[in-house]
Amino acid sequence: MSGHHATTVPWSAEAEQAVLGCLLLDNAAAYRLADVNLKADQFYNAVHGHVWTATMALITAGKPADVVTVVDALGHQAEACGGMAYLHAMAASVYSTAHVRQYAAIVVDMAQRRALLSAGDQVQAIAREAGEPAELLGRAQSLLMALQRQDARSAPVSLLEGLTARTEHWEALGNGSAPPGMRTRLPRLDRCLGGGLRRGRVVVVAARPSIGKTSLGVQIGLNVAGDQHRVLVLSQEMPRCDLFDRIAANLGRIPLETLTAIGGRPDDSDFWQRSLEVTEAAAALLIDIDDQPALTLMAIRSKCQIAKAQRGLDLVVLDYLQLCAATDRKASRHHQIEEISRGLKTLAKELDICVMVLSQINRDVAKADREPTLADLKESGAIEEDADVVLLLHPKGELEGGAQLLACILAKNRQGKKDRIALRFEGAYQRWGECDMDVSTPPPSRSRGHGNDNGL
């Protein structure tokens, strides 16, 4: 039996031989490796990879795999693999198959270390190339992300096991207990979304300027954070100080103009009491604000990865898509948006988070004085294709007390029904809620609202 190879290459001959020896000794040991995700190319010694492939092919076919049958399955490769003598030595070296998972885990670990060393060499090569540093950094980050994707382990689930879990999910939906997903606290919307925002999905909130999509995105972020989920708001348009003012107005029911107008802050105890309540409320909310402008897809990915690793992450609110910067500045804007849109969908699945993307719609909608449709999503059809849910906001007029009535048109819902939901927006306090108004048909043109000064 051979020892370790050159010290510069991470691998364990003993672990590789032990895994194969366990399988040859007891074929049932293979079933204890289902979640280890060991593959033939993770064996450093190519001979061991060939033996693994031949052995597993026999076991999965329901045939016995022993020294004789595996040598026969190897065919012309048998002699190069050491023949019956080497396979017999591997089987004889194992006294028990009890630790087969640990042996396999060592093989996978060593393979990952070799892959990391290889990626490091490639990163060094990229760093020496000519080109924009941002583009080179993006390629380097993609290499490392590819390693993480390879490490993602997914084991098959039986139909019975899967349906049993779904039965519990259906029961929770039926009795209203522990609803799946992250609640937006807009009840009708949550019902349409099967309990709330779901991990691995992209939700697009689209509207023309000054309708309130930023405010709604932040409101949902606050609601989700209120249920102890971790939220990250990437505000590319609005400085964080302005966003903090709007959040304070929301949490403390303090008129926004009181917080923003010169001389608007009252010198009274009520104001300072409310501001104290805002601080206390904020202490319980797991929400972070980042106002870096012109984010590239790689920058978004990096911020989300860091947040996930350091604090945990459940929901990202990106404000807004069309302000993102492209890695390839020479590409058409259509292709730039398409690249970012596709990347956000991949990010949602990889990090197991929900990504809420705010998006502009074409200004032609306002000029035509009509409701928006999916076709109006600005600059790329990829937004519609990649999104799991698309919410289109359209003003429907003014309510009593100065609040705005908006139709939230659920234009796409991959896992549920489409719907139209009436929303009430109190611009003075930056607060959103559902209401009972009828938004099923367009109102008379004279009552159509066009946003308001407190919209975002």
The 3D shape can be described as elongated
Q: Please report which band the strand proportion falls in: under 5%, 5-15%, 15-25%, 25-35%, 35-45% or over 45%.
A: 5-15%
At the first level of CATH, what is the class of the largest domain?
Alpha Beta
Name given to the CATH homologous superfamily of the largest domain? P-loop containing nucleotide triphosphate hydrolases
How does CATH name the architecture of the largest domain?
3-Layer(aba) Sandwich
Give the mean pLDDT: 81
pLDDT under 50 segments (min length 5)?
2-6, 443-454
By CATH, the topology of the largest domain is: Rossmann fold
Task: Please give the order of strands in the largest beta sheet.
Answer: 3-2-4-5-1-6-7-8-9
Structural class: alpha/beta
Instruction: Note the total helix count.
Output: 16
Estimate the helix proportion, in percent: 40-55%
**Gyration radius, in Å:** 28 Å
Q: How many strands appear in the DSSP assignment? A: 9
End-to-end distance:
70 Å
Largest beta-sheet characterization? 9 strands, mixed
How many structural domains can be distinguished in the coordinates? 2
